[in-house]
Amino acid sequence: MSSVRRSAVTGVGGYLPDEIVTNDDLAKFVDTSDEWIRERTGIQMRRRAAPDQAVSDLAVEAARRALAAAGRSVDEVDLIIVATTTPDLTFPATAAIVQRKLGCPVGVAFDIQAVCSGFVYALSVADGFVAGGRSRCALVIGAEMMTRLMDWTDRGTCVLFGDGAGAVVVEPVEGQGTTADRGLLGFALRADGTKQDLLYVDGGPSTNGQVGKLRMQGNQVFRHAVVNISEAVTAAAADAGIEVDKVDWFIPHQANLRILEGVAKRLGIDEAKVVTTVAEHANTSAASIPLAMSVAVADGRIKPGDLLLLEAMGGGLTWGACVLRF
Fold first, then answer.
1. CB 198 within 8 A of CB 27
2. Catalytic residue check, 116
3. Which one from 104, 116, 158, 322 is the annotated catalytic residue?
4. Domain pair 4-175 / 183-325, same fold
5. pLDDT tens string 189-214
6. Which run of H or of E encompasses 195?
7. Backbone phi, then psi, for 12, in 5-degree steps?
8. Long-range residue pairs from 201-205, CB within 8 A, at least 24 positions apart, any chain
9. Is 4-175 in CATH node 3.40.47.10?
10. Long-range contacts: 198-207, Cβ < 8 Å, 24+?
11. Which of 23, 224, 253, 256 is catalytic?
12. Which one, 136, 240, 246, 312, has least CB within 10 Å?
């Protein structure tokens, strides 16, 4: 049997800013409570970046940790993709800023904007580069400062989000073209622009020239999330040629504990297989999946050879899923 070039995740890293904002902290200036937030979301705290930190700073820290885990140096990186909805600047791309701050050589660097689904989208794009032979060492980073988009008078949104970054190194490996191969095995990516009003930011360079604030119809987003994510997960598993119940770990976008539980139940996934970190860092948008991965790799749950299922849904609406063998 001839070999097949695959894209494999060879290192994972995460970074959270130092400042912890608890539910009780929020209750001091918005009409909410620790009990209200925990009951509806499962969130206990979130991190907030320092005023002098940019999202590229968070990305750089996560990238350094991922490179160390992969045993790679910045000199070997030839592709950087940053998934973010909170870039440093309108341009250049945050990925180019990360390239400069890391000290990587001239290569390919660009951003992807699919909000909370950005990391899954970015992995798919990196797979095209790496499996296609155009990259030998790619950094795929999800980095967000969602607290910069909050309307701190809106208790329905400001309690949900936090800041952070997660990164993976993606490198080529040889496989046999079977589900036993290490690497990225299957994807399903979706978008429905007609649902924009359910989750969006009310600002932009070409509309009002402002950064804007996040706006969300929470109940509608919840309803679409459980149904849409389940469909994408099933499609990604079919693309990979595996059954959903064969996965070792389910790593969902850390948006809301009730959504996580709803999707797992709909798919028939054992709760013991679900990696959940939303309580510690809230919804960090594109950063949440790699952050959860970094925690589960660090504590020994995720081991080489494990079959992982990733999924996310975000503004747009966008959603998607990925199956990979670690």
1. no
2. yes
3. 116
4. yes
5. 999 999 999 999 999 999 999 999 99
6. none
7. -130, 140
8. 201/85, 201/149, 201/315, 205/90
9. yes
10. 198/224, 198/315, 198/317, 199/115, 199/314, 199/315, 199/316, 199/317, 200/315, 201/85, 201/149, 201/315, 205/90
11. 253
12. 246
Place of tokens 């045993």: 71
Question: pLDDT tens-digit profile of 233-277?
Answer: 999 999 999 999 999 999 999 999 999 999 999 999 999 999 999
- 2, pLDDT greater than 80: no
224 assigned to active site: no
In whole angstroms, give the CA distance from residue 123 to residue 46. 25
Of the candidates 23, 228, 256, 283, the residue annotated as catalytic is 283
Residue 133: how many other CB atoms lie within 10 Å: 9
Of 200, 256, 248, which Cα lies nearest the Cα of 229? 256
Residue type, 187: F
What residues does each domain of the chain span?
4-175, 183-325
Top CATH class of 183-325 equals alpha beta
Strand order, beta sheet including 79-83: 4-15, 163-175, 138-145, 79-83, 108-112
